[in-house]
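Researcher: If convenient, please comment on what follows.
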Amino acid sequence: MIKPRTSCPAFILLTTFIALILNSGLADAEEIGCVTTTWKLVGANNKVCVDAFEDPKIVGVTCHISQAHTGGITGGLGLAEDPSQFSLACRQTGPITLPAKMPASETVFSEATSLFFKSTDITRLWDQKHNTLVYLAISRKIINGAPANSISTVPVMPWGAR
């Protein structure tokens, strides 16, 4: 079996291009802050960072995700694989207006957690029966599937005097 040369510049460029295309239209996260979990003598510290993002298609919903980030020399250079450890919390932060055609499932956020093939993805599911938006975060690795997950729900309710 022939193995692809992952250090080949053309392969790296192609992989980056595919990732950009797949992630277009997804929410952009804003870093809220990080807390050091392990101090490293050389390189970046291990840490847990919290990011916030608004659902790109449902105004009035904001999610916060905390994720572990590997430090050390490889972590500081962006070459380390981050562990599949995260937590998700989504809340109604304003009036929610659902689109006329609400998809049953849609990816709203994706972030790479290794140089190649591993990411944390957040999918919005629509629970029509309970009038609730369900946000599911999973760790994706092409070979291993989804070993870790976290869930948060947002009931669609009136906001303020609306």
User: Anything to note?
Assistant: Residues 9-23 form the longest helix (15 residues).
